[in-house]
Amino acid sequence: MLLAIDVGNTNTVLGIFDGEKEISHFRITTNITRTSDETGMLFLQYFASCGVDKKDITDVIIASVVPPVMYSLEHAIRKYLGITPMVVGPGTKTGINIKYDNPREVGADRIVNAVAAYNKYGGPIIIVDFGTATTFCVVNETGDYLGGVICAGIKVSMDALVSKTSKLPRVEILKPQSVIGKTTVSSMQSGAVYGYVGQVENIIRKINEELGVKTKVIATGGLAGMIANETDVIDVVERSLTLEGLRIIYEKNK
User: Where would I find the beta strands (DSSP E) of the chain?
Assistant: First the structure.
């Protein structure tokens, strides 16, 4: 079995694959102070919860945008699983031609998402990942990664709003009953949800105008479903897109 690990700025997502089938996935907080032993024990608890013996894990692949966690993470995998993990980075075969001015600047998660989406849907496509940052990645019909857009994520934007104001409270990000808020909380929720929907719609419209073609739009990340429900510019929500991309890249490189 393959253990795929997506290390994001806020959360780390682990997925177990038996061939092409995803058996289970699990989410933990990304913590740069967590020791390798703590990480290893979390892995063992995860395996036990889904009925997988650690001996069944034969390979591990990692995509990370948080370099400080990598030493402890890789050490934990070697110590507790006896495996040297494959880490997505320069030199990894992806099947995607990166057209960035400096390809090394592109986050591993963005490339992995592009691989998964292009493999499943072809191109041209836009992949929108609603994470700590919200990223828009563009892949054309021949599999070229053209670049994209990076914005502050919804939660980051709300955290900044609360931290820079004296009276605004921290609120849960939910769709309010109406756009016109009747309370401070519902007004903030309206701004968060509908403001972000407007941002997504405008960026996608601008990308399509620049390309001169209509693209298929794939969304992933924690808040993808909520935003997709409020707009018709998102065609598909793929919650396990990054893990699936890691599986595909592993197959290309094993």
Answer: 2-7, 11-18, 21-29, 59-64, 86-87, 97-98, 125-130, 133-139, 144-152, 216-221, 236-237
- The count of structural domains within the chain is 2
pTM for the whole structure: 0.89
Domain with 49 in it: what CATH number? Answer: 3.30.420.40
Q: Is 10 helix (H, G, I), strand (E, B) or coil?
A: coil
Which residue among 28, 52, 87 closes a domain?
Answer: 87
Rg (CA), the chain: 19
Catalytic residue among 109, 129, 232, 235: 109
Strands of the 2-7 sheet, one edge to the other: 21-29, 11-18, 2-7, 59-64, 86-87
Supply 128's token pair: 């929108």
Residue 176 counted as domain residue = yes
Q: Which amino acid is at 38?
A: E
Tens digits of residue pLDDT in 97-117: 999 888 888 989 999 999 999
Helices 241-253, 108-121: crossing angle, 10 deg rounding: 90
109 has catalytic annotation: yes
CB of 114 closer than 8 Å to CB of 135? no
